[in-house]
Amino acid sequence: MAKFIKFNVVNTSDAANLLLQGTRLVNVDHIGDISYNAATGAVTIVLTAPAGAFGENTGTAGISGRIITAIATTNTTGAAGVPTITAGASAPDKAIYKAMTANPGGIVSSAQLGVDQAATPLQMYWSTYVVSTSDQI
Fold first, then answer.
1. Which residues make Cβ contacts (< 8 Å) with residue 11, sequence separation at least 6?
2. What Cα–Cα distance (Å) separates residue 129 from each residue in 21, 24, 70?
3. What is the chain's pLDDT, residue by residue, as a tens digit (137 residues)?
4. Which residue among 51, 77, 79, 97 is the one 20 to 30 A from 104 at the CA level?
5. Does the predicted TM-score (pTM) go above 0.70?
6. From CA 54, how far away is CA 83, in angstroms rounded?
7. How far apart are CA 92 and CA 71, in angstroms?
8. In degrees to the nearest 10, what's the CA dihedral of 57, 62, 66, 67?
């Protein structure tokens, strides 16, 4: 298993997003959970401590933690283009699982997206990568 998962973010919509393009790395040891929302193309990765810095939020009586949200689209501009996924095996979250189990003893493995399952398959791209904090994990 590789030590890091690499995301290649592609978003050419404007100058601000051009600055956010490129490689993002996630330490495999900090990944606690991965989920995919087929309606939005969002992959959510819940990080564990110490990267997640889990703690109790006394204001809401929940557990807070760090979350990475990466959006998969079918274009390089970051515009709406939710991939058509009809079978779970092709979902974008599976690219992360595959990267986690690839390259034994290696340093980096890429979460490389393939094509979606539309009638005319389209290449999928990671268009955004945002790290945030949630009080309700």
1. 17, 18, 20, 21, 76, 77, 78, 127, 128
2. 9, 8, 4
3. 789 999 999 988 877 777 778 999 999 999 999 999 999 999 999 988 654 455 555 555 556 778 999 999 999 887 778 999 998 888 999 999 999 988 788 899 999 999 999 999 999 999 989 988 887 66
4. 51
5. yes
6. 32
7. 9
8. -150
